[in-house]
């Protein structure tokens, strides 16, 4: 990991994400990272790491929870010692299942971890319940050499071994992976990767960015990845990611109280005070991305209806949608990400969610319900990229 700035509590960014991945794989961060913010759990993990490591001169690291050059050196050294060469082929020599032990089990577990099906870094050569569940998850999203869906029995026989090696050869390029996006289910990652294969680089960049902030109900996450707030743009006029604060939420609630009813304001404030959450409304997400990638000026703004108008996009059939096209309806907009899915900042109780464009449903974080949403009525081709 390269250090371009000291990292500390409150910071947000891809460098924080990389730090959290390293801390998790080293065993200091106990929960699979799902956000790109440096919160209290990350600070505690850094302090625990610092307490048990030395710098390049052999001196004990300061346990201040701040990641500077000395801590980065120690982290990189520890991570290099942990990681092993990438496995390029699974050498199948026997059927393996729960209770088995051996080098082939060890290889299988490392492959499943690298693919995102096994959630915890392997430390034993034993095929346990977690490995069985990982195999079953792999089987549910892959086919055998004839194109038939694998049986999800958790047993690795010749058909599953063939599918594992087929996946390792990379017939579909991995544009997004579970390691990068644990906020998404493996099935959705596979489907989106397939959809992105023929998309332009400009379209891929838009999709890859918005997916960082999307909650996927199929991934069984404990909470949101971002917050919705009326009037907020995902990237501000300085091209900084916009972070929700209690003061900002209260100010917007005074101006637009209808968007903060039924416990939403209290819930959003609680989230903002617990983590550094990216914040936007539906059109603000699209505008923020267009700003970030230079398609519009840093001060340009537009509503959902405006973005679905002729100045920004043109009409197309739903069946012709491409990744990074717009999907909309009166007063609302989302970004199509491929595979029949859209990422949308859906409202104060939802944040940004990954939803099916047909039969839209969003998880309501205030009351826990899965809410049915109205249909998209507009399908638009943006004028900014081919």
Describe the structure in your own words:
- There is one protein chain.
- This protein is of the alpha+beta class and 386 residues long.
- It is built from twelve helices and ten strands.
- The longest helix is centred in the N-terminal third of the chain and has 14 residues, at 69-82.
- The chain starts with 13 loop residues before the first helix and ends with a strand.
- The model has no long low-confidence stretch (mean pLDDT 92).
Radius of gyration: 22 Å
Helical segment tally?
12
What are the segments in which pLDDT stays under 50 over at least 5 consecutive residues?
none
Tell me the count of domains.
3
Strand content: 5-15%
Distance between the first and last residues' Cα:
34 Å
Q: Order of SSEs, N→C?
A: HHHHHHHHEHHEHHEEEEEEEE
Protein structure class: alpha+beta
Assembly state of the chains shown: single chain
Strand segment count = 10
> Helical content, roughly?
25-40%
Largest sheet: spatial strand order:
3-10-4-5-6-7
Characteristic key phrases:
single chain, 386 residues, alpha+beta, Muramoyl-pentapeptide Carboxypeptidase, domain 1, 3 domains, two-stranded parallel sheet, 12 helices, 34% helix, 11% strand
What is the fold's blueprint, element by element?
Blueprint: H1 14-26, H2 40-51, H3 69-82, H4 103-115, H5 129-140, H6 158-168, H7 186-196, H8 201-210, E1 227-228, H9 246-255, H10 264-274, E2 279-280, H11 282-292, H12 304-307, E3 313-315, E4 326-329, E5 332-338, E6 341-347, E7 351-356, E8 361-363, E9 370-372, E10 378-382
Parallel strand pairs: 1-2
Antiparallel strand pairs: 3-10, 4-5, 4-10, 5-6, 6-7, 8-9
Helix pairs in contact: 1-3, 9-10
């Amino acid at each position: 990991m390269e250090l371009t700035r000291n990292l500390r509590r409150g910071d947000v960014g891809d460098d924080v994400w990389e730090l959290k991945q390293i801390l998790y794989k080293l065993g200091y961060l106990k929960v699979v990272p799902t956000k790109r913010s440096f919160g209290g759990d990350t600070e505690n993990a850094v302090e625990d790491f610092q307490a048990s490591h030395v710098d390049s001169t052999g001196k004990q690291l300061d346990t201040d929870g701040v990641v500077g050059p000395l801590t980065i050196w120690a982290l990189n050294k520890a991570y290099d010692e942990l990681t092993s060469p990438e496995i390029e082929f699974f050498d199948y020599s026997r059927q393996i299942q729960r209770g088995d032990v051996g080098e082939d089990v060890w290889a299988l577990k490392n492959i499943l971890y690298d693919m995102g099906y096994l959630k915890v870094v392997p430390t034993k050569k034993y095929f346990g319940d977690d490995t069985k569940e990982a195999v079953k998850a792999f089987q549910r999203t892959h086919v055998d050499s004839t194109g038939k869906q694998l049986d999800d029995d958790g047993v690795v026989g010749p058909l599953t071994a063939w599918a594992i090696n087929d996946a390792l050869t990379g017939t579909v390029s991995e544009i997004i992976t579970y390691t990068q996006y644990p906020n998404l289910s493996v099935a959705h990652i596979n489907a989106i990767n397939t959809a992105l294969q023929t998309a332009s680089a400009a379209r891929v960049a838009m999709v890859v960015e918005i997916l960082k902030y999307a909650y996927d109900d199929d991934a069984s996450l404990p909470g949101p990845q971002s917050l919705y707030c009326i009037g907020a743009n995902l990237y501000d006029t300085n091209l900084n990611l916009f972070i929700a604060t209690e003061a900002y939420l209260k100010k917007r609630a005074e101006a637009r109280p209808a968007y903060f009813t039924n416990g939403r304001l209290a819930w959003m404030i609680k989230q903002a005070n617990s983590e550094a959450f990216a914040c936007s409304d539906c059109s603000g997400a699209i505008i923020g991305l267009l700003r970030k990638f230079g398609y519009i000026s840093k001060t340009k703004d537009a509503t959902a209806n405006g973005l679905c108008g002729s100045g920004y996009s043109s009409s197309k059939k739903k069946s012709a949608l491409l990744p990074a096209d717009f999907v909309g309806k009166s007063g609302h907009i989302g970004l199509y990400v491929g595979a029949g899915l859209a990422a949308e900042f859906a409202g104060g109780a939802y944040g940004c969610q990954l939803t099916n464009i047909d039969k839209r449903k969003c998880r309501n974080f205030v009351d826990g319900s899965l809410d049915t949403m109205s249909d998209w009525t507009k399908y638009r081709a943006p004028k900014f990229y081919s």
